[in-house]
Design goal:
388 residues, mainly alpha, 14 helices, 10 strands, binds alpha-D-glucopyranose
């Protein structure tokens, strides 16, 4: 086992918690043992993918805990508060409908079905996974073309990405007005149609829809990739840009999410090659020592050291391991073997020097953010690929 894989296993084991709430057993990996105590939806999906090589039973249990939290209507929240509700101090920033809520009223990128297909088996055989897909389609596919809309930036998992600044302005994550957005959406029950009726904004976001398309395909349903290309592909710039509702604006800040569709096996090859050759392998944009940075190095908002100041603003420059793995999948599929190996080597080197951190400085690999961060265990997929 390589050193990076050993580190991955140690961190996953250390973050594992088990318990019971009102007779419902749960078990999952804390995203970081000190900073993030609860179960986060997409963190668990990535953790399960990493777990399966060390302990397939835990991979399944991790995802079953998400299903155990599912509401009767199929909804699964962004964060599940298994052991205790959200504290008063965090309440203004958490998307809960009440202080006693057992989970948030918002979603995270819906990759459960895809993660299940990698880590456990056929998701179509688990009706609760289909039920979540039904909820998403019924409540978030606002224009009937199969793509989902989000009501807050953090539903994308990319909380304070600068691509959300033109959409939510001072109400974006990590900005002074974010609690106002939470308060308003809480009043509207985080219901996309009610938020839409009040003038939005809502966003058809690239990463969410990439992972949604992977999940639909894992379920054996029609892929959302053609709709994603139709709506979000920008032929002139050669990348994917989100769309805002109302008004249809396409904010143009270039972040790694613009390249995330590389993970889609059914992405037209011509588009995949443009993403790789014009952006991922461009030194001015995403080709850094530890790549891909979460924001293109050519953007004025690029903050490779994660920024300073009292408020943490995520996804504004540093490199995250899940992003590296998702674009690496596409590079491999399209035959950019050497370049993919180089990208993997950058991330593996950073992990071996710094441990599993939440994110890394793309220039130096210096570890930043939370320590012992669980989904960075995806480095095992880069070091000893088991899913291609
Ligand atoms: C941060 C990240 C989000 C993640 C959460 C828990 O909020 O931006 O993507 O799910 O931490 O790790």
């Amino acid at each position: 086992m390589s050193a990076a894989v050993e580190i991955a296993e140690r961190v996953l084991r250390q973050g594992w918690v088990e318990g019971e709430r009102d007779g419902t057993p749960y078990a999952y990996t804390r995203p970081s043992p000190t900073r993030y105590p609860w179960q986060w939806y997409w963190d668990s999906c990535f953790a399960a993918i990493a777990w399966r090589r060390f302990d397939p039973g835990r991979a399944r249990t991790e995802l079953e805990s998400l299903l155990a939290a599912q509401r009767e209507d199929g909804f699964i929240g962004h964060t599940i508060f298994w052991d205790r509700p959200v504290s008063l101090g965090r309440l203004p920033f958490y998307n809960v409908t009440s202080r006693h809520a057992d989970q948030t009223g918002t979603i995270q990128p819906p990759l459960l079905a895809w993660a299940w297909s990698i880590a456990v088996g056929d998701p179509a055989a688990e009706p609760r996974i289909a039920a979540q897909a039904e909820w998403l389609a019924a409540n978030r596919d606002l224009e009937g073309d199969g793509l989902l809309w989000i009501v807050q930036p953090d539903e994308s998992g990319l909380d304070a990405s600068p691509k959300f600044d033109p959409v939510w302005g001072r109400r974006a994550n990590g900005r002074i007005g974010f609690p106002c957005l939470v308060r308003r959406n809480r009043r509207l029950g985080f219901d996309a149609r009610r938020i839409d009726a009040r003038g939005g904004p809502l966003l058809c976001e690239t990463l969410v829809n990439t992972l949604w398309s992977l999940s639909l395909q894992a379920l054996g349903r029609p892929s959302a990739t053609p709709a994603l290309v139709e709506r979000l592909w920008d032929e002139r710039r050669g990348l994917f840009l989100d769309q805002v509702r109302p008004g249809g604006a396409r904010p143009s800040t270039v972040t790694w999410a613009a390249l995330a569709p590389l993970a889609l096996p059914d992405l037209p090859e011509r588009i995949g090659r443009r993403l790789v050759e014009e952006h991922l392998l461009s030194r001015n944009e995403f080709l850094t020592a530890v790549a891909p940075p979460s924001v293109s190095a050519s953007e004025p908002s690029y903050e490779p050291d994660g920024g300073r100041g009292p408020i943490r603003r995520y996804w504004r420059g540093p490199t995250w391991v899940n992003s590296a793995w998702l674009v690496w999948l596409g590079m491999r599929r399209l035959g950019y073997e050497e370049e993919a190996n180089r990208l993997a080597a950058g991330v593996i080197g950073a992990v071996e020097r710094e441990g599993l951190r939440e994110y890394y400085d793309p220039r130096t690999g210096t570890g930043l953010g939370a320590k012992d961060f669980a989904w960075s265990a995806l480095v095992a997929e880069l070091a000893e690929p088991a899913y291609l």
